[in-house]
Amino acid sequence: MPGDKSISHRAVLLGAVSEGETVVRGFGRAGDTESTIGAVRMLGAAVDEVAHDELVVHKIGLSSSEKHVVDCGNAGTLMRLLAGLLVGQTSLTNLTGLIELTGDESLSSRPMERIAEPLRRMGADIATTDSHAPLLIRPAESIRGIDYELPVASAQVKSAVLLAGLSASSPTTVVEPSPTRDHTELMLESAGVRVRQRPTSVTIEPAASLRLDQVDVPGDFSSAAPLLAAAALVPGSDLTIYDVGLNPRRTGFLDVLERMGARIAVFNRRKAGREPVGDVQIEHAELVGVEVGAEEVPLLVDELPLVALLASHARGRSIVRGAKELRVKESDRIDAVADGLRACGARIRAREDGWEITGVPARLRGGRVDARGDHRIAMLGAIAGLASREGVDVLGAETVAISFPGFFELLDSVTRR
Ligand code: S3P
Fold first, then answer.
1. Are 73 and 40 in contact, with CB atoms under 8 Å apart?
2. Annotated catalytic, 302?
3. Which residue lies with its CA nearest to atom 10 of ligand 1?
4. What distance in angstroms lies between residue 389's CA and the mean position of ligand 1's atoms?
């Protein structure tokens, strides 16, 4: 699998504010992570591309009071985390001038007050454009630590607040409605920051300097997920994926697959730095319907479209609740999934916060899925096509490159005709 996208973003961002050099191995090169390399370069950090998946990131050099405009492309993680990192005038970034963060059409339609509001509570000078990007940030001389209860379970919002907390005058605590991915916390710990993690909250101490010598990026579980879904659905399949990230706050999809009756084994569990890693094997199986509720959603938020696809082929009724966040991803994924799968013959109904699906334990007919510019919907369409009788035309298939440029080649290489 390509290197984990969430961890790759964080490695480059934290590398750019860490003393000396940060070697990033297993970097997941994709549209989104290229945006992150471009962003830190724009802000004055050198990034050496030693190999396709290996980078050396240098600290942002001289202090600068110039205005910077940074294009975050399609990457919500980049825009939100970078905003947190930049709101304080700190020895980490050395930047004092105005910073404008822009994004593409999709990113510019996503909510940004969710980060601006807590950051302002910390003393940040950050303005949104009608609650959206572009964001205008004037690094503030002093940032205060806060205790912040997240209104939505979002690792991006949590991370933005924690990263701002690095330049604060006192500790920062974020309380989560339910646990979300903790890659930021784990990497900050590796960089020498004092982090106290509890089941539903985290506290960090301010830090005058970071040191992150090396990051070993595991394979991206979210990129593995479409292949796992394909193997579960296509009769005769037996697929093993090696060296994939298994952070328990990312692998809710494995639990859901197991509840649906999939035949999965995880072996060779180990650690890459502080991140759990292992190998996953899956075989085809008859699936049954499943229920997914709000508390579980953050653990498989990017895999929920695949749950809808699996449920369309499973015996009985399935329901996904508490997933309203999907409406503000790269597309409105609740509607994109319901419309796309229905066009392939699935019996799926969109709810405000998820879907109701009546599974048919047979192959879907196939049809046409519009990716709506969203990489995860393009991959969903491809897997729906593989499992279908007549195939699926994926409109805008090239958008897979946002997270997984080699997706179609890899899928082809493991498919027997
Ligand atoms: C991410 C967090 C999630 C996820 C996104 C990556 C991250 O977003 O959907 O693909 O790297 O922190 P939210 O925090 O908005 O749920």
1. no
2. yes
3. 302
4. 34
- For Cα atoms 153, 292, 352, give the angle at the middle one, nearest 5 degrees: 70
Mutate to test the pocket of ligand 1, among 10, 12, 159, 181 (most ligand atoms within 8 A of CB): 181
pLDDT tens for each residue of 38-49:
999 999 999 999
Q: What is the DSSP letter of 288?
A: B
Give yes or no for a contact between 307 and 256, defined as CB atoms under 8 angstroms apart: yes
Q: Which of 14, 33, 77, 275 to mutate to test the pocket of ligand 1 (most atoms within 8 A of CB)?
A: 77
Residue position matching structure tokens 């999965």: 264
**Ligand 1 interacting residues, C-beta cut-off 6 A:** 6, 77, 154-156, 159, 181, 301-302, 325
- Fill in the amino acid letter for 87: V
Catalytic annotation, pick one of 302, 332, 339, 353: 302
Query: How confident is the model over 326-342, as pLDDT tens digits?
Result: 999 999 999 999 999 99
CB 191 within 8 A of CB 211: yes
**CB 400 within 8 Å of CB 384:** no
Taking only the tens place, the pLDDT of each residue in 134-185 is 999 999 999 999 999 999 999 999 999 999 999 999 999 999 999 999 999 9
What distance in Å separates the CA atoms of residue 222 and residue 215, rounded to the nearest whole number? 19
Q: Which atom of ligand 1 is the closest one to the Cα of 155? A: 14
253 vs 201: CA distance, rounded Å: 23
pTM of the shown model: 0.98
Q: What is the pLDDT of residue 10?
A: 98
315, two tokens: 């015996």
- Examine the pLDDT at 361 and tell me if it is beyond 90: no
